[in-house]
Amino acid sequence: MAIILKGEMSGASLSEAPLLLLLKLRTFIALFAVVIFFSFAAHNFVSWENLLIMSRHVALNAFLAIGMTFVIVAGGIDLSVGSIVGLSGMVAGGLILHGIPLGDEYTLYLSVPEVIVVALLTGVAVGAINGLLITRLNVAPFIATLGTLYIARGAALLSSNGETFPNLTGDPDYGTTGFPVIGSATILGIPLTIWLLVAVGAIAAYIAGRTPLGRQIYAVGSNERAAQLSGVRVNRVKMFVYMFSGLCAAIVGLIIASELVASHPMSGETFELNAIAAAVLGGTSMSGGRGKIGGTIIGAFVIGILSDGLVMMGVSAFWQTVIKGVVIVAAVVVDQIQRRVQQRFALQKQAATGG
């Protein structure tokens, strides 16, 4: 039997407090470090024009990462988001250029708002398929979303035989003009994409932190069986997170197609890796049950600034891939260290108070 003095245990707890604080602030520290580094290493890195360009890139990754955060917190994974980006963009491009054929003589053309709704519903539908495969057929999330990754990408390629839908400016005669505004418009000098990110991020943060649904998502990820016994409708929660992830991916597909004024079936390829990296770097635990939307958005900034900074420095695309992989592994390792330190800190605090 070991006898532990409360005073000694309290001192040990205090000694680990600074380390735990540093681990919790790791995303802020990483963001500060990359900004300072590229400010000196890359020419014109801190110029207003470059900051606007980077903000657009960061926003695309952040949208996906927000949806991915909900999925990972609930104990799952979504590998299909990159393919949903491509498919939703192709749906929008096809509707604007070719409409919906109604027999041999008539074609139905949708207005831009209607096209946007259909493209968003496409992402939600793929997310719903993911959710049904996982909840009803008990397919592992990794396998289910890997399958829909290929299905969605194949559907995007089939929609145009692998070709691009170009010149999505629309036709005034059909009422399909205005689509490029999504990617080019600014409000108070700030791109519309950033305002959309603020809105989606605020809604997601509110759901996660202030609603019963948010608490249920965390409960399912922490202990699915316990959540089910406590009355949580686990299957509905899982359906929601995958559908929300699909919605976020569809938003990215629309933004990319609007910015390029064209849609390509391979848009969004490997975007799921950046989304996972941003979520994990932002403090989302791959084991589920822990993560915050704010941390995820900061993680997206780190990944986005790192990518753009390396490009500005002329670093090879191959080395960029290696560096991103290192960042993902390092983020997971640090997350595991934080969990162990938190557990030890909690045990020491309990022993020190005689609990």
From TrEMBL:
Q: Which InterPro entries match?
A: ABC_transp_permease
Spell out the molecular function terms from Gene Ontology. transmembrane transporter activity
Keywords carried by this UniProt record: Cell inner membrane, Cell membrane, Membrane, Plasmid, Transmembrane, Transmembrane helix, Transport
Q: Which CDD domains match?
A: TM_PBP1_transp_AraH_like
Subcellular compartments? Cell membrane
Cellular component, GO annotation: plasma membrane
Q: How does it sit in the membrane?
A: Multi-pass membrane protein
Nucleotide-binding recorded as keyword? no
- Looking at the keywords, is Ion transport present? no
Main subcellular localisation:
membrane
Its transmembrane ranges are 21-46, 58-77, 84-103, 115-133, 140-159, 179-208, 239-258, 293-311
Q: Which domain of life is it from?
A: Bacteria
UniProt name for this protein? ABC transporter permease
Q: Which organism is it from?
A: Paraburkholderia sprentiae WSM5005
Ranked from the top, the taxonomy reads: Bacteria, Pseudomonadati, Pseudomonadota, Betaproteobacteria, Burkholderiales
